[in-house]
């Protein structure tokens, strides 16, 4: 590394944003608009994919649309691993962040153009690669603004993650309204403009506000190692192009077969990651015990995200097809809720409830639930969020259901998310072997990639099963896992070797 951490931190103006380093304000702005663009696009994506060509959509069947939505989310989390590696070994976090933001903006621009499937595929590729470069590296730059012993760091991350939820809350409302009143492409254009704003502000202010943080790679590839990686990556790229060309010409490579590849990757990557750590000679017996404890926690996380991430496809479809969106029969108000608006419920509930749960954990003190029990609560509420949807479906028959049932489903899942998600990030760091400290967080993020890879197959069951049986099926898996993890709580705690 060209600069020490101390030199990088000292190069940053340490005040200028609510008592925090000035650069936090720039990163807050960039992340807000990046999340605005991502969640805004995602709020209408599934409707765009299955709506008729006459209405400005792509005319896909709903099952394919839901499966593609899950594949897209899974690949974004997978590419984050490579984005972190590229920053560490080749170009540094700042350049990775800049290139990623540019690709994301171009991806949204492509989606705003009325060129059908080719523009859609180009957009997906650009956003997946761009998010992989930006997602891990912007958080890394935030952490680099502070000295390791700076008490402001935790507060800085809280402020930073508020930008995520603010962007995620507002964007479905704005983009959903634009799509309803104009068309899909105007909605996608709003996402592109948001990302362009972030990029302009970053380019203008990043040097003065962020100093030397993330400018240089932390472990630059040089010499023979660089040649080896270049050769292997080149061979892999050529092989991939050949495989794609052959499978396309033979008619083998379809959305359906690609979804299976993504699912297999989603399952295989964490297994390879975990096995590499467990078998490493640099890992002690105590650390191996903790890695064993991590297995049920990881599986619980996967099942949680299976349900949570279906808010953007299964529940989005349900909102459009089976929910009473016209308020006139319900409240006498002449207004029809855009189905995309329901995507704002998750971030809204997180903003409202996060301080409540945080205060509760503090107040409980020594009675604060253990990590395994918080995971147990997380999967319990996630399972209930799907099972509760069975009630109105069995009572209403073929009639549209009250939108408050959908609100309740999102609320229950958010309670589970607040129990499991922050705890998962924390315990991943605590249980990490010393030799694999940063890789353990990568493994944690893969739980979401695995979940969405599985969802690419699960959502194919909606049509043959129907909503009632589908909610029952997924909910039953979650509740079965809830019982298993609850029974295993003591074993997990014992294997965690003193970590709580």
From TrEMBL:
CDD domains: MFS_DtpA_like (cd17346)
Cell compartment(s), UniProt: Cell membrane; Membrane
Keyword Transferase (UniProt): no
Pfam families, per database record: PTR2 (PF00854)
Membrane disposition: Multi-pass membrane protein
Keyword list, A-Z: Cell membrane, Membrane, Transmembrane, Transmembrane helix, Transport
Domain annotation Major facilitator superfamily (MFS) profile: ranges: 1-210
Gene3D superfamilies named among the record's database cross-references: MFS general substrate transporter like domains
Transmembrane segments: 70-87, 158-178, 184-205, 233-252, 258-279, 291-308, 340-362, 374-394, 400-420, 427-447, 467-487
Entries under PANTHER family matching the protein: PROTON-DEPENDENT OLIGOPEPTIDE FAMILY TRANSPORT PROTEIN, RESISTANCE PROTEIN MDTM, PUTATIVE-RELATED-RELATED
Family named by the database record: Belongs to the major facilitator superfamily. Proton-dependent oligopeptide transporter (POT/PTR) (TC 2.A.17) family.
Name listed for the protein in its UniProt record: Peptide MFS transporter
Organism listed in the record: Macrococcus armenti
């Amino acid at each position: 590394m060209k600069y020490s951490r101390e030199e990088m931190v000292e190069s940053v103006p340490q005040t200028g944003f609510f008592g925090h380093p000035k650069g936090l304000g720039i990163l807050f702005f960039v992340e807000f608009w990046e999340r605005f663009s991502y969640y805004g696009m995602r709020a209408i994506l599934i409707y765009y994919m299955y709506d008729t060509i006459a209405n400005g959509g792509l005319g896909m069947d709903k099952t394919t649309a839901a499966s593609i939505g899950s594949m897209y989310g899974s690949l974004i989390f997978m590419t984050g691993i490579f984005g972190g590696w590229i920053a560490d070994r080749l170009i540094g976090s700042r350049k990775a962040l800049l290139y990623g933001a540019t690709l994301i903006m171009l991806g949204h621009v492509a989606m705003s153009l009325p060129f059908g499937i080719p523009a859609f595929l180009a957009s997906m590729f650009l956003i997946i690669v761009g998010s992989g470069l930006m997602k891990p590296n912007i958080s890394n730059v935030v952490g680099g603004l502070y000295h390791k012993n700076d008490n402001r760091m935790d507060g800085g991350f809280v402020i930073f993650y508020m930008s995520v939820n603010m962007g995620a809350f507002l964007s479905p409302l704005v983009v959903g309204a634009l799509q309803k009143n104009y068309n899909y492409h105007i909605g996608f254009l709003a996402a592109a403009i948001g990302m362009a704003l972030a990029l302009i502000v970053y380019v203008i202010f990043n040097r003065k506000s962020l100093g030397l943080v993330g400018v240089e790679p932390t472990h630059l590839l040089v010499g023979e190692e660089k040649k080896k990686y270049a050769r292997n990556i080149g061979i892999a790229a050529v092989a991939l192009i050949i495989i794609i060309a052959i499978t396309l010409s033979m008619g083998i490579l379809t959305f359906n077969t690609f979804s299976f590849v993504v699912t297999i990757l989603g399952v295989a990557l964490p297994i390879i990651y975990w096995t590499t750590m467990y078998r490493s000679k640099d890992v002690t017996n105590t650390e191996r015990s903790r890695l064993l404890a991590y297995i049920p926690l990881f599986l619980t996380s996967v099942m949680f995200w299976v349900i949570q991430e279906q808010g953007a496809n299964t529940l989005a479809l349900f909102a459009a097809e089976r929910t009473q969106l016209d308020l006139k029969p319900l409240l006498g108000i002449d207004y029809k809720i855009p189905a995309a608006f329901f995507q704002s419920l998750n971030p809204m509930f997180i903003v409202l409830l996060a301080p409540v749960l945080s205060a509760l954990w503090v107040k409980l003190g020594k009675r604060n639930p253990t990590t395994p029990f918080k995971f147990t609560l997380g999967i319990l509420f996630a399972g209930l969020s799907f099972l509760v949807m069975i009630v109105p479906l069995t009572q209403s028959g073929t009639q549209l259901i009250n939108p408050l049932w959908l609100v309740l489903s999102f609320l229950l899942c958010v309670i589970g998310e607040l129990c499991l998600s922050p705890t998962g990030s924390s315990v991943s760091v605590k249980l990490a072997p010393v030799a694999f400290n940063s890789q353990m967080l990568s493994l944690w993020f893969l739980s979401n990639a695995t979940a969405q890879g599985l969802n690419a197959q699960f959502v194919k069951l909606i049509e043959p099963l129907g909503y009632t049986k589908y909610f029952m099926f997924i909910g039953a898996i979650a509740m079965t896992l809830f019982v298993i993890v609850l029974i295993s709580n003591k074993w997990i705690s014992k294997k965690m070797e003193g970590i709580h």
